[in-house]
Design goal:
By secondary structure, this protein is of the alpha/beta class. Helix content is 43%, strand content 25%. Strands 6, 7, 8, 9, 10, 11, 12 and 13 form an 8-stranded mixed β-sheet that branches. It has a 5-stranded parallel β-sheet with strand order 2-1-3-4-5, sandwiched between helices. It is elongated and about 95 Å long.
Protein backbone atom coordinates (compact mmCIF):
# COMPACT_ATOMS: atom_id res chain seq x y z
CA UNK A 1 0.00 0.00 0.00
CA UNK A 2 1.43 3.42 -0.95
CA UNK A 3 1.79 6.14 1.64
CA UNK A 4 -0.83 8.25 -0.12
CA UNK A 5 -3.49 5.58 0.29
CA UNK A 6 -2.91 5.10 4.01
CA UNK A 7 -6.11 5.34 6.02
CA UNK A 8 -6.18 7.59 9.07
CA UNK A 9 -8.96 7.60 11.66
CA UNK A 10 -9.50 11.09 13.11
CA UNK A 11 -11.25 10.95 16.52
CA UNK A 12 -12.44 14.23 18.09
CA UNK A 13 -15.78 15.31 19.57
CA UNK A 14 -15.31 18.81 18.14
CA UNK A 15 -16.63 19.06 14.58
CA UNK A 16 -14.35 21.99 13.66
CA UNK A 17 -11.28 20.07 14.81
CA UNK A 18 -12.33 16.97 12.88
CA UNK A 19 -12.99 18.98 9.73
CA UNK A 20 -9.69 20.85 9.91
CA UNK A 21 -7.61 17.75 10.58
CA UNK A 22 -9.26 15.66 7.87
CA UNK A 23 -9.02 18.40 5.20
CA UNK A 24 -5.34 19.10 5.88
CA UNK A 25 -4.48 15.37 5.87
CA UNK A 26 -6.43 14.74 2.67
CA UNK A 27 -4.48 17.53 0.95
CA UNK A 28 -1.39 15.48 1.74
CA UNK A 29 -2.96 12.50 -0.03
CA UNK A 30 -4.13 10.50 2.98
CA UNK A 31 -7.56 8.88 3.21
CA UNK A 32 -9.38 10.02 6.37
CA UNK A 33 -12.40 8.76 8.25
CA UNK A 34 -13.82 10.76 11.16
CA UNK A 35 -15.38 9.66 14.44
CA UNK A 36 -17.12 12.07 16.78
CA UNK A 37 -16.78 9.95 19.93
CA UNK A 38 -14.81 7.17 21.51
CA UNK A 39 -17.68 4.73 20.94
CA UNK A 40 -17.91 5.63 17.27
CA UNK A 41 -14.15 5.16 16.90
CA UNK A 42 -14.26 1.69 18.48
CA UNK A 43 -17.17 0.70 16.24
CA UNK A 44 -15.27 1.83 13.12
CA UNK A 45 -12.17 -0.07 14.20
CA UNK A 46 -14.23 -3.27 14.37
CA UNK A 47 -15.49 -2.79 10.81
CA UNK A 48 -12.72 -1.10 8.82
CA UNK A 49 -8.92 -1.26 8.52
CA UNK A 50 -6.86 1.78 9.52
CA UNK A 51 -3.16 2.54 9.42
CA UNK A 52 -3.05 5.26 12.08
CA UNK A 53 -5.31 6.98 14.62
CA UNK A 54 -5.29 10.65 15.59
CA UNK A 55 -6.98 10.59 18.98
CA UNK A 56 -8.31 13.40 21.19
CA UNK A 57 -8.30 12.75 24.95
CA UNK A 58 -11.13 14.87 26.33
CA UNK A 59 -14.35 13.32 25.02
CA UNK A 60 -17.61 12.47 26.82
CA UNK A 61 -18.56 8.90 27.84
CA UNK A 62 -15.48 7.12 26.52
CA UNK A 63 -12.36 9.27 26.75
CA UNK A 64 -9.39 9.08 24.44
CA UNK A 65 -7.40 7.38 27.22
CA UNK A 66 -10.08 4.68 27.48
CA UNK A 67 -10.05 4.22 23.70
CA UNK A 68 -6.25 3.92 23.83
CA UNK A 69 -6.44 1.20 26.50
CA UNK A 70 -9.07 -0.77 24.55
CA UNK A 71 -7.18 -0.58 21.27
CA UNK A 72 -3.92 -1.58 22.90
CA UNK A 73 -5.56 -4.66 24.42
CA UNK A 74 -5.96 -5.95 20.84
CA UNK A 75 -3.48 -4.12 18.63
CA UNK A 76 0.21 -3.42 19.21
CA UNK A 77 1.98 -0.08 18.77
CA UNK A 78 3.70 -1.41 15.65
CA UNK A 79 0.48 -2.77 14.19
CA UNK A 80 -1.67 0.35 14.68
CA UNK A 81 0.08 3.63 15.59
CA UNK A 82 -1.86 6.10 17.73
CA UNK A 83 -0.95 9.79 17.98
CA UNK A 84 -2.69 11.68 20.76
CA UNK A 85 -3.86 15.11 19.53
CA UNK A 86 -5.15 17.02 22.55
CA UNK A 87 -5.27 20.26 24.49
CA UNK A 88 -4.00 18.46 27.61
CA UNK A 89 -0.40 19.60 27.62
CA UNK A 90 1.08 18.71 31.00
CA UNK A 91 4.02 16.36 31.19
CA UNK A 92 1.95 14.03 33.39
CA UNK A 93 -0.69 13.70 30.65
CA UNK A 94 1.97 12.96 28.02
CA UNK A 95 3.79 10.38 30.17
CA UNK A 96 0.55 8.62 31.06
CA UNK A 97 -0.54 8.35 27.42
CA UNK A 98 2.88 7.15 26.26
CA UNK A 99 3.02 4.54 29.03
CA UNK A 100 -0.41 3.26 27.98
CA UNK A 101 0.81 2.72 24.43
CA UNK A 102 0.50 5.96 22.51
CA UNK A 103 3.14 6.20 19.78
CA UNK A 104 3.35 9.98 19.91
CA UNK A 105 1.73 13.03 21.50
CA UNK A 106 1.04 16.50 20.07
CA UNK A 107 -0.80 19.36 21.68
CA UNK A 108 -3.40 21.81 20.43
CA UNK A 109 -3.33 24.23 18.76
CA UNK A 110 -1.74 21.84 16.31
CA UNK A 111 1.43 22.77 14.47
CA UNK A 112 0.59 21.06 11.16
CA UNK A 113 4.15 20.72 9.77
CA UNK A 114 5.05 18.91 12.99
CA UNK A 115 1.89 16.79 12.75
CA UNK A 116 2.64 15.80 9.15
CA UNK A 117 6.23 14.86 10.02
CA UNK A 118 5.10 12.69 12.93
CA UNK A 119 2.35 11.04 10.89
CA UNK A 120 4.82 10.30 8.14
CA UNK A 121 7.29 8.83 10.65
CA UNK A 122 4.72 6.57 12.28
CA UNK A 123 3.37 5.38 8.94
CA UNK A 124 6.90 4.62 7.73
CA UNK A 125 7.51 2.55 10.84
CA UNK A 126 4.22 0.75 10.33
CA UNK A 127 5.07 0.08 6.68
CA UNK A 128 8.40 -1.43 7.77
CA UNK A 129 6.62 -3.57 10.34
CA UNK A 130 4.01 -4.71 7.81
CA UNK A 131 6.74 -5.54 5.32
CA UNK A 132 8.59 -7.52 7.97
CA UNK A 133 5.44 -9.54 8.72
CA UNK A 134 5.00 -10.17 5.01
CA UNK A 135 8.58 -11.40 4.65
CA UNK A 136 8.21 -13.61 7.72
CA UNK A 137 5.06 -15.08 6.20
CA UNK A 138 6.85 -15.73 2.91
CA UNK A 139 9.75 -17.35 4.75
CA UNK A 140 7.37 -19.53 6.73
CA UNK A 141 5.58 -20.59 3.54
CA UNK A 142 8.92 -21.35 1.87
CA UNK A 143 10.07 -23.40 4.85
CA UNK A 144 6.84 -25.37 4.91
CA UNK A 145 7.23 -25.97 1.17
CA UNK A 146 10.74 -27.33 1.66
CA UNK A 147 9.63 -29.50 4.55
CA UNK A 148 6.68 -30.88 2.54
CA UNK A 149 8.93 -31.81 -0.39
CA UNK A 150 12.03 -33.10 1.39
CA UNK A 151 10.81 -34.03 4.87
CA UNK A 152 10.03 -37.62 3.88
CA UNK A 153 13.21 -38.13 1.85
CA UNK A 154 16.04 -36.75 3.94
CA UNK A 155 17.00 -36.46 7.60
CA UNK A 156 15.91 -33.57 9.79
CA UNK A 157 19.48 -32.23 9.78
CA UNK A 158 19.49 -32.01 5.98
CA UNK A 159 16.11 -30.25 6.00
CA UNK A 160 17.44 -27.74 8.53
CA UNK A 161 20.48 -27.17 6.31
CA UNK A 162 18.21 -26.43 3.37
CA UNK A 163 16.17 -24.03 5.46
CA UNK A 164 19.32 -22.20 6.54
CA UNK A 165 20.98 -22.13 3.11
CA UNK A 166 18.49 -21.19 0.38
CA UNK A 167 21.18 -21.48 -2.33
CA UNK A 168 21.60 -25.15 -1.46
CA UNK A 169 18.23 -25.80 -3.09
CA UNK A 170 17.34 -24.99 -6.67
CA UNK A 171 13.99 -26.32 -7.76
CA UNK A 172 13.81 -27.34 -11.37
CA UNK A 173 16.29 -29.43 -13.31
CA UNK A 174 20.04 -29.17 -12.93
CA UNK A 175 23.06 -31.39 -13.48
CA UNK A 176 24.89 -32.52 -10.35
CA UNK A 177 27.77 -34.87 -9.68
CA UNK A 178 26.69 -37.26 -6.94
CA UNK A 179 26.60 -40.90 -5.86
CA UNK A 180 23.63 -43.19 -6.43
CA UNK A 181 22.76 -46.30 -4.42
CA UNK A 182 20.28 -49.08 -5.16
CA UNK A 183 19.57 -51.63 -2.41
CA UNK A 184 17.34 -54.61 -3.14
CA UNK A 185 16.26 -57.69 -1.22
CA UNK A 186 17.35 -61.02 -2.70
CA UNK A 187 14.77 -63.76 -3.29
CA UNK A 188 11.97 -61.73 -1.78
CA UNK A 189 9.29 -62.56 -4.37
CA UNK A 190 8.93 -66.27 -3.48
CA UNK A 191 9.03 -65.36 0.22
CA UNK A 192 6.25 -62.80 -0.26
CA UNK A 193 4.12 -65.25 -2.23
CA UNK A 194 4.19 -67.68 0.69
CA UNK A 195 3.05 -65.18 3.32
CA UNK A 196 -0.18 -63.28 4.12
CA UNK A 197 -0.19 -59.67 2.84
CA UNK A 198 0.04 -58.26 6.36
CA UNK A 199 3.22 -60.25 7.02
CA UNK A 200 4.75 -59.09 3.74
CA UNK A 201 4.12 -55.45 4.63
CA UNK A 202 5.46 -56.00 8.15
CA UNK A 203 8.70 -57.47 6.79
CA UNK A 204 9.16 -54.61 4.33
CA UNK A 205 8.49 -52.01 7.00
CA UNK A 206 11.03 -53.66 9.33
CA UNK A 207 13.61 -53.55 6.52
CA UNK A 208 12.84 -50.01 5.38
CA UNK A 209 12.73 -48.68 8.95
CA UNK A 210 16.25 -49.82 9.81
CA UNK A 211 17.71 -48.84 6.44
CA UNK A 212 16.14 -45.37 6.49
CA UNK A 213 17.86 -44.59 9.79
CA UNK A 214 21.23 -45.62 8.35
CA UNK A 215 20.81 -43.57 5.18
CA UNK A 216 19.80 -40.56 7.27
CA UNK A 217 22.90 -41.05 9.43
CA UNK A 218 25.13 -40.68 6.37
CA UNK A 219 23.17 -37.68 5.00
CA UNK A 220 21.67 -39.61 2.11
CA UNK A 221 18.43 -38.77 0.35
CA UNK A 222 15.88 -41.54 -0.08
CA UNK A 223 14.39 -40.96 -3.49
CA UNK A 224 11.91 -43.81 -3.32
CA UNK A 225 10.99 -47.22 -1.98
CA UNK A 226 10.26 -49.41 -4.97
CA UNK A 227 8.79 -52.84 -4.25
CA UNK A 228 11.40 -54.45 -2.00
CA UNK A 229 14.17 -51.97 -2.82
CA UNK A 230 15.50 -48.51 -2.04
CA UNK A 231 16.85 -45.83 -4.37
CA UNK A 232 18.98 -43.29 -2.50
CA UNK A 233 21.58 -40.72 -3.48
CA UNK A 234 24.26 -38.69 -1.74
CA UNK A 235 25.19 -35.09 -2.53
CA UNK A 236 21.75 -33.52 -3.03
CA UNK A 237 19.63 -31.59 -2.26
CA UNK A 238 22.18 -30.40 0.32
CA UNK A 239 25.79 -30.46 -0.92
CA UNK A 240 27.95 -33.28 0.46
CA UNK A 241 31.61 -33.03 -0.53
CA UNK A 242 32.53 -36.65 0.29
CA UNK A 243 29.34 -38.13 -1.17
CA UNK A 244 31.04 -41.23 -2.66
CA UNK A 245 32.76 -42.05 0.61
CA UNK A 246 29.52 -41.52 2.56
CA UNK A 247 27.64 -43.85 0.20
CA UNK A 248 30.21 -46.65 0.55
CA UNK A 249 30.25 -46.35 4.35
CA UNK A 250 26.47 -46.29 4.37
CA UNK A 251 26.23 -49.39 2.16
CA UNK A 252 28.53 -51.39 4.42
CA UNK A 253 26.66 -50.26 7.52
CA UNK A 254 23.38 -51.29 5.89
CA UNK A 255 24.70 -54.80 5.24
CA UNK A 256 25.86 -55.09 8.85
CA UNK A 257 22.45 -54.02 10.11
CA UNK A 258 20.66 -56.73 8.15
CA UNK A 259 21.39 -58.80 11.25
CA UNK A 260 19.15 -56.44 13.22
CA UNK A 261 16.44 -56.62 10.56
CA UNK A 262 16.50 -60.40 10.66
CA UNK A 263 16.41 -60.44 14.45
CA UNK A 264 13.25 -58.32 14.33
CA UNK A 265 11.74 -60.65 11.75
CA UNK A 266 12.73 -63.78 13.67
CA UNK A 267 11.18 -62.44 16.87
CA UNK A 268 7.97 -61.87 14.90
CA UNK A 269 8.05 -65.37 13.42
CA UNK A 270 8.98 -64.11 9.96
CA UNK A 271 11.66 -65.34 7.54
CA UNK A 272 15.14 -63.81 7.37
CA UNK A 273 16.16 -61.61 4.45
CA UNK A 274 19.28 -60.79 2.44
CA UNK A 275 20.19 -57.67 0.44
CA UNK A 276 22.43 -56.69 -2.46
CA UNK A 277 23.68 -53.12 -2.98
CA UNK A 278 24.99 -51.33 -6.08
CA UNK A 279 26.70 -47.92 -6.00
CA UNK A 280 27.81 -45.62 -8.81
CA UNK A 281 29.08 -42.03 -9.04
CA UNK A 282 28.53 -39.64 -11.92
CA UNK A 283 26.56 -36.75 -13.36
CA UNK A 284 22.78 -36.93 -13.09
CA UNK A 285 19.87 -34.63 -13.87
CA UNK A 286 18.08 -33.81 -10.63
CA UNK A 287 14.99 -31.76 -9.84
CA UNK A 288 11.22 -31.78 -9.53
CA UNK A 289 10.00 -34.31 -12.07
CA UNK A 290 6.37 -34.95 -13.00
CA UNK A 291 3.29 -32.93 -13.86
CA UNK A 292 1.87 -29.66 -12.56
CA UNK A 293 -0.60 -31.57 -10.38
CA UNK A 294 1.83 -34.17 -9.08
CA UNK A 295 5.62 -34.18 -9.01
CA UNK A 296 8.53 -35.47 -6.97
CA UNK A 297 12.16 -34.66 -6.37
CA UNK A 298 14.04 -37.23 -8.42
CA UNK A 299 17.09 -38.12 -10.53
CA UNK A 300 17.60 -39.49 -14.04
CA UNK A 301 20.60 -40.28 -16.22
CA UNK A 302 23.04 -42.98 -17.27
CA UNK A 303 24.79 -42.88 -13.88
CA UNK A 304 21.48 -43.87 -12.26
CA UNK A 305 20.94 -46.67 -14.77
CA UNK A 306 24.44 -48.05 -14.19
CA UNK A 307 23.93 -48.07 -10.41
CA UNK A 308 20.80 -50.16 -10.96
CA UNK A 309 22.71 -52.59 -13.23
CA UNK A 310 25.50 -52.94 -10.66
CA UNK A 311 22.93 -53.66 -7.95
CA UNK A 312 21.38 -56.45 -10.03
CA UNK A 313 24.82 -58.10 -10.18
CA UNK A 314 25.41 -57.91 -6.42
CA UNK A 315 24.97 -61.17 -4.53
CA UNK A 316 23.29 -61.37 -1.15
CA UNK A 317 25.37 -59.48 1.41
CA UNK A 318 27.50 -57.68 -1.17
CA UNK A 319 28.20 -53.99 -1.74
CA UNK A 320 29.33 -53.57 -5.34
CA UNK A 321 30.70 -50.21 -6.47
CA UNK A 322 31.93 -48.82 -9.76
CA UNK A 323 35.46 -47.64 -10.53
CA UNK A 324 34.09 -44.07 -10.62
CA UNK A 325 32.86 -44.39 -7.04
CA UNK A 326 36.16 -45.78 -5.76
CA UNK A 327 38.06 -42.99 -7.50
CA UNK A 328 35.75 -40.33 -6.01
CA UNK A 329 35.97 -41.88 -2.52
CA UNK A 330 39.75 -41.60 -2.41
CA UNK A 331 42.15 -43.59 -0.24
CA UNK A 332 41.13 -46.14 2.34
CA UNK A 333 38.47 -48.07 0.43
CA UNK A 334 38.77 -51.80 1.15
CA UNK A 335 37.55 -54.31 -1.39
CA UNK A 336 37.70 -58.06 -1.67
CA UNK A 337 37.79 -58.45 -5.42
CA UNK A 338 37.44 -56.70 -8.73
CA UNK A 339 35.30 -58.23 -11.42
CA UNK A 340 33.61 -57.18 -14.63
CA UNK A 341 29.94 -57.25 -15.49
CA UNK A 342 28.12 -56.79 -18.75
CA UNK A 343 25.61 -54.04 -17.98
CA UNK A 344 22.52 -53.75 -20.15
CA UNK A 345 22.76 -50.74 -22.46
CA UNK A 346 26.56 -50.48 -22.14
CA UNK A 347 28.75 -51.98 -24.87
CA UNK A 348 31.94 -52.45 -22.88
CA UNK A 349 32.29 -54.58 -19.72
CA UNK A 350 32.10 -52.57 -16.49
CA UNK A 351 34.59 -53.05 -13.64
CA UNK A 352 32.98 -53.37 -10.22
CA UNK A 353 34.46 -53.89 -6.79
CA UNK A 354 33.10 -55.77 -3.78
CA UNK A 355 33.65 -53.15 -1.11
CA UNK A 356 34.10 -54.42 2.45
CA UNK A 357 34.93 -51.21 4.30
CA UNK A 358 36.23 -47.65 4.28
CA UNK A 359 39.19 -46.81 6.47
CA UNK A 360 39.36 -43.21 7.62
CA UNK A 361 42.72 -41.37 7.64
CA UNK A 362 44.81 -42.23 10.69
CA UNK A 363 42.96 -45.50 11.34
CA UNK A 364 45.17 -48.57 11.76
CA UNK A 365 43.99 -51.36 9.48
CA UNK A 366 45.46 -54.79 9.92
CA UNK A 367 44.00 -56.22 6.73
CA UNK A 368 45.38 -53.49 4.44
CA UNK A 369 43.41 -51.04 2.28
CA UNK A 370 43.32 -49.87 -1.33
Amino acid sequence: MSEESRRILVVDDNADNRDLLSRRLEKKGYVTVCADSGRAALDLLEKEPFDLILLDIMMPEISGIDVLKMVRSKRSMADLPIIMATAKDTSEDMVRALKLGANDYITKPIDFPVLFARVQTQLALKYANDRNHELVGQLKARNEFIRSIFGRYVSDSVVEQLLGEPDALRLGGETKHLTVMFADLRGFTPIAESLPPASVVEMLNNFFGVMTDVIDEFNGTINEFYGDGILAFFGAPAPLEAHARAALRCGNQMQQLMERVNQINTDAGLPTLAMGIGINTGNVVIGNIGAHTRSKYGIVGSAVNLAARIQSSAAAGEVLASQATLAAAGNGVEYREERTIQAKGIDQPVSVFQVTGVVEPGTVNASGST
